Structure formats: structure tokens, C-alpha cells
Amino acid sequence: MSSWLLHRNLPSDLVLQSDCDMRDPGEEGGVVRCRGIELSGEEVDIHLQAGKQVVRLAVDWDEKLRLLLGEDLCLRRLRFADELVAENDDLPEADPLARLDADFVLMSNVVSELQDRVIELFGGEATE
């Protein structure tokens, strides 16, 4: 993720947001938290060039989901796009359980697709 920011080479299906956390890999392990700033700006570049590594990065994925991606590939702060959530609006209002089931399936499929993509971006699953 550090390389994505430093070299401006974010994968095409990801859109950079304005939050990230960077950590110094040294013994002190200082942390820089960036909130609501332009991550492709000079401030962030200075930290990256000094050796700090991105440990969390806020991105939009494929116009479906906004999230915070962690260095451990943990997906946090999931927010589904309004267009995605609206896909089940045509279901009858008389059956709220059917709507809940449909929303769960829709969102589960999106998260599953995202998990596959994240694994792909970071080199695939480890083989024994």
C-alpha cells in the first residue's frame, strides 16, 4: 500500500480516499494518522520517503464499497454504495424479511468478491 501512494500506482478498481495510517518500522514505531487530507500530496510523500509504511488505507472499490484496508488485509468501516443498496428496492414492502435476505445475499456477494480481489492484489493465497 505504501508503494501505491508513493508511486501513484493504485490498482484501477480502487479510488484513494482521504485517510491512512503510517507506521515507522523502527524500534520506536511512531505512527502518523492522516484524516481528511490529500494523500497524494507532499506531506504524505515526506513520511513515505522517510521510510514510514502504510498500515491502513481508505479506498473505494469498484464503485460498490468504501472501506479501510489494513496491512493484515482486514476490511474495516465497510460502507456500501447507495446504488448497490438500492438494487433491492423493487422488492415488495410487505415482506421485510425477504428484503433483509436479499440485502444480505447482495452484500455478502460484494464482500466475497472484494476479498478475492484483495488476495489477488497481495500475491494470492499462501501455499504450504
Write a structural description:
34% of the residues lie in helices and 28% in strands. The protein has 128 residues and is α+β, with helices and mostly antiparallel strands. It has one domain (2-121). A five-stranded antiparallel β-sheet has the order 2-1-3-4-5. The longest helix is centred in the C-terminal third of the chain and has 26 residues, at 96-121.
Give the integer mean of the pLDDT values. Answer: 93
**Major beta sheet, specifics?**
5 strands, antiparallel
What is the percentage of strand-forming residues? 25-35%
Low-confidence stretches: none
Based on Cα principal axes, name the global outline.
elongated
Query: Helix tally?
Result: 4
| Largest sheet strand order | 2-1-3-4-5
The multimeric state of the shown protein is single chain
| Amount of helix | 25-40%
Radius of gyration: 18 Å
- Total beta strand runs: 5
In total, how many domains does the architecture comprise?
Answer: 1
Q: How far from one another are the termini?
A: 25 Å
Helix-strand string: HEEHEEEHH
Task: Give a summary of the structure in a few sentences.
By secondary structure, the chain is of the alpha+beta class. The protein is 34% helix and 28% strand. It has helices spanning 2-6, 42-49, 82-85, 96-121, and strands at 14-23, 31-35, 53-61, 65-70, 75-80.
Index terms:
single chain; 128 residues; alpha+beta; 34% helix; elongated
